[in-house]
Please model this.
Amino acid sequence: MNAIEDPGDECLAVTPPKTWATGVPGVAHAIQYSLGQTSVRRTALTLLNINQAKGFDCPGCAWPEPAPGQRHRNEYCENGAKHVNDEATSRRVTADFFRRHPISELAGKSDYWLNQQGRLTEPVVKRPGSDHYEPIGWDEALGLLADELRALESPDEALFYTSGRLNNEAAFLLQLFARAFGTNNLPDCSNLCHESSGAALNETLGIGKGSVSLQDIHDADLIFVVGQNPGTNHPRMLSSLEETKRNGGQVVAVNPLPEAGLMRFKHPQKPRGVIGRGTVIADQFLQIRPGGDLALFQALNLLLLQAEDAAPGTVLDRGFIDTYTTGFDDFAEHAREVAWSDVLAATGLTREEIERVHQRVLNSEKVIVCWAMGLTQHKHGVPTIREVVNFLMLRGNIGRPGAGVCPVRGHSNVQGDRTMGIWERMPQSFLDALEREFGFTPPAEHGLDSVDSIRAMRDGHAKVFIGVAGNFVRATPDSDVTEEAMGRCRLTAHISTKLNRSHTVCGETALILPTLGRSDRDVQAGGEQFVTVEDSMSEVHASRGRLAPASPHLLSEVAIISRLARRTLGDEPPIPWEEFEGDYGTIRDRISRVVAGFDDFNTRVARPGGFRLPNPVNERRFPTPSGKAVFTRNDFEVVRAPEGHLILQTLRSHDQWNTIPYAMNDRYRGIHHARRVVLVNTEDLQALGLKERDEVDLVSVWRDGVERRAPGFRVVAYPTPRGSAAAYYPETNVLVPLDSVADISNTPTSKSVVVRLEPVQERAGTWAG
Model:
């Protein structure tokens, strides 16, 4: 493999945004990237096994696969192919690499460059005072980490973070270890993305998960796709929406930016997607202002109430409302107070556009609302999703086929991790089940989420950080604060497959512990193992790696956690960590007795395609305190930027997965060879006295008066809503204040950051003065 250069951001090229997604170009880009990472043979091996019943689960998004027998031989998308072959790369990071590159040098490299160096191959340590990682044996590394944990004054000085890449077995062991150690400090990536969904759904429906299946998507009359970009973030969703359309359903897209995949989809495995025009996905596109979704659904709810007034008994599902819900009268009184002037100001839409959507709702018996971070990462994210639930309940679109709530998770097992107990606030019933199974009393006091973990490190209350998968410092807000907080730890340890920015932000002592990837064969004392995952629709299935591991020195995540727990806890409590490491089936036996819905886990998951977890909502049983689904009153304030400022939303480029770019392009939006760009409406550019390609600093404005600056962005004219802008994360995470979070969920408000665009010449003149 050739050496990888850091591409920088000096060669910006802009072309018109695409009006369709995928087709032959998507296949070509996937193959080109894959062959740039590894051999033809390994590429073929990964692509023929990904998302197959006897293969391995895509490490990318959590969109479900069709049932076995209905899957295509190539059951993956462009970004899934890139993701798995990024993991299967033939490039290697060895001890020699760390001898040649001090940490201070690595800290100046881009996220792209760090990722492109390849797979980690052996454990390394940064010792106090050193600027280099150096090799360390597994026994010494785990012993060093165990010693630091035991030396803490309180177990609550330790943080156990994980991303959604982790499998169910390892996630269950991680939470078991943390709680046996004595803490509920289990922050995870859900805290940063879909926590608002869980909070709203738990309050209104009694369970923090979606209620729909893939078949429901296909059978729906009307699907809302709100605050998400399937063409980039979960492209296989487009195949499902195409099926919806072919079955006669309609799609309404609600998003600040027009996204190519929601305009037209060319299915690369169908003739109409290769030589035809493909399928128009969105029947109507509402270009909403960031944060205006709550006002939109309140307006739709008002229109439904008024339609029922005009034709009693024909619009609302009074049988569902009276039998299965509570709080309707209070909700309806509040809904009737909504002012159209406020709605139009918040949404940027016309009343005619909203009434057209209302008519689609009246003509549809089965309605689904899908959403992602465009709804969750606002101060009013939880009330917005509660209002979505209100909207669905009015016409009984909860708990019946072809209808329901559909939060679309963005990482392969983020939902499974939560099911396995990766949450700082697991219910007492789960803790009681752990106690019955393992004979110790888990701590009852709630732990720290991701935002509170940063505060704890900053304030000296947390001293050891253990990250299992993920890239914590690039996934979190207020980058400067986060990195300074991490640097205050006595020890930071990351269990990872590849190099990332978090490895360059070290505590006094730092460890990198390399692990097997999802596509790697996992052989333990009990033979070849498989792991399990849970997708966005509560389907649990097996995943079996097929590739030879990147190094003989790699351990599985299960093995690392088991050995660390044994070194840290000894025999108290008496948990059979060595048995768990040798045979993952023994872990699943324990899960079956602790986690609801996993009865006879080993037998059921051995069936092709696995099984679906029960969801009481689909039986119209609601495990809320009242035993009924809850209508809610939800207030909103229009997000307004001061004169000369814009509302910024952070987003991914197309050639990116979570925090890691695979290329410096965003070809669907027409951005090439650069990432430090800010997309702004042409009229806003004129009002601000800016022109395309001007260089600006993005400066966020918040109530604490602290200046947060992301320097050196090029302005690109783009069809954003007036008064708003968009730019890529993680480069813009520095602009999101740590304390600017969603009410209730504590999720960072990354989709509504007030910024000003400061020309570089003006900045230079100010500094010179």
